[in-house]
Write a structure and sequence with these properties.
The chain has about 290 residues and is an alpha+beta fold. It folds into 2 domains: about 130 residues, Alpha-Beta Complex (FdhE-like fold), CATH 3.90.1670.10; about 100 residues, no CATH class. About 40% of the residues lie in helices and about 10% in strands. The protein has 9 helices and 8 strands. Strands 1, 2, 3, 4, 5, 6, 7 and 8 form an 8-stranded mixed β-sheet that branches. Helix 3 packs across helix 4. The longest helix is centred in the first third of the chain and has 24 residues. The termini are far apart. The N terminus is likely disordered.
Length: about 290
């Protein structure tokens, strides 16, 4: 006998079928980001910076692959935190680039020689765990190392319960704010928030503000004539926005890369009186 579901039951079944948490894929997370950054860098106003971040993503990919392949322990023999070693590897890779800008070279050399205590202080500031000022020059590289370690943790972790899909909040794996949201083509076109630290994705219902949870006054803004895949979801209640990317319009879109390459949209929204719900992990203001 065919079972006929009541209206509320239909909604419950649909909710249960949604993939609540999507873990990062070791082979793709940083490799796809690097490729996308290089693609977006062509004829871009900040093309040099996008290419530098692509080189960073290349190094992140190698560091993550090495740790997965060797199942490296969570602590090193020197007593440093695991991400310190990743940071030294990243800086070494960047210092080997023949066309590295002198200012970036100086930053990487300084980070390579930094004490564990000073590195920890920077990490605490970046993660919002202290009120110390963030060093904008070194922040992308410190965050890059932290991303490798936390992405590794997310990949290795057992199932983690995702947050309620109607309640804004940090990543269910590491409790870090999302960098943006993405709408996938597969699986019914559901929207996922993307963690800026561990690259995990968690489902969040559409038409709700990802910052305050309001359903009133939600709109999407974009640059006239710009890429259809790149938009910003704005909330009149809290006057914040977070970018949202649509893979139906561009299958190669990558949240961290495309957010960084769409600064013109940030400027437009800032002029309109909106503020970002959270910052970009690879671009920090002084």
């Amino acid at each position: 006998m065919q079972r006929i579901l009541e209206r509320g039951q239909i909604e419950s079944v649909a909710h249960a079928e949604i993939e609540r948490l999507r873990k990062p894929h070791a082979d793709h997370v940083f490799a796809d980001r690097s490729q996308r950054l290089r693609t977006l860098s062509a004829n871009h106003a900040i093309g040099d910076y996008l290419r530098l971040m692509a080189a960073l993503a290349d190094s992140q990919h190698r560091a993550l692959a090495a740790r997965i392949a060797s199942n490296l322990p969570v602590a090193s023999s020197s007593g440093d935190m695991p991400w310190h070693e990743v940071l030294r590897e990243i800086c070494g890779d960047l210092l080997a680039l023949p066309d590295l800008l002198p200012t970036v070279r100086g930053t990487c050399e300084g980070l390579s020689a930094a004490t564990p205590a000073s590195l920890e202080a920077q990490a605490q500031a970046l993660l919002g765990l202290s009120s110390e000022p963030v060093d904008a020059a070194s922040a992308p590289f410190v965050m890059g190392a932290l991303q490798v370690c936390w992405t590794h943790l997310a990949i290795r972790s057992a199932g983690v319960a995702a947050r309620d899909s109607k309640s804004p909040g940090g990543c269910p794996v590491c409790d870090t704010a999302p960098v943006a949201s993405i709408v996938h083509v597969e699986g019914g076109g559901h929207r996922y928030l993307v963690c800026s630290l561990c690259a995990s994705e968690w489902h969040f219902v559409r038409a709700l503000c990802t910052h305050c949870g309001s359903s009133k006054g939600i709109s999407e803004q974009s640059i006239e004539g710009g890429a259809k895949a790149v938009r910003a979801e704005c909330c009149e209640h809290c006057r914040t926005y977070r970018k949202i990317f649509y893979r139906e319009h561009d299958a190669a879109v990558e949240p961290v890369a495309d957010d960084l390459a769409s600064l013109a949209l940030d400027l437009l929204l800032s002029d309109a009186g909106y503020r970002r719900s959270s910052g970009h992990p690879l671009l920090w203001q002084t």
